[in-house]
Amino acid sequence: DGGITQSPKYLFRKEGQNVTLSCEQNLNHDAMYWYRQDPGQGLRLIYYSQIVNDFQKGDIAEGYSVSREKKESFPLTVTSAQKNPTAFYLCATGRGENTEAFFGQGTRLTVV
Amino acid sequence: AQSVTQPDIHITVSEGASLELRCNYSYGATPYLFWYVQSPGQGLQLLLKYFSGDTLVQGIKGFEAEFKRSQSSFNLRKPSVHWSDAAEYFCAVDPGGGNKLTFGTGTQLKVEL
Lengths: 112, 113
Prior knowledge:
By secondary structure, chain A is mostly beta strands.
């Protein structure tokens, strides 16, 4: 199946712990993105990568880190520095300029 | 600052009625424009997109949207709503064409049977 796989679907962590969210794609898209979704706020861009071994901060990168060692994978680490990590996280991919973004099914992170 | 406004947080319509969801954007030039739909706990599905050309765009599931440059708007419409259309709808813009989307805050659609 072609697509974007985010795992796990639900994730629970204790406050102060780092946690890594997985995003894998087999669409052969160059670009990958991480968005955070909170109720009533739409989606906000955390990090993006347009090519392997390169990534840029989005609008709300503080408290997050990413890596892009393979074209297929773009994991997101939510660090203990993120003040309010509980949210729904969406990974997306894109084929490049003048095209739309494709979204995974999301990971709901709850920090207690 | 660049922004996308969806003024209606919640909308309720009866099944079979027409629907219009509003979207306004604030950018210096015409960005790429999108409408996505999200069912609870799911990812986003693209309904339609506007890059250039004909300002009336047809999408999936019977949806259409009209780009109006003079009003900086990209409103989503459907002539007859089905109960399965109940979901949250997001308008998004891409000012640079590189998939870095700015989203509106979404409109929650409820359909009454």
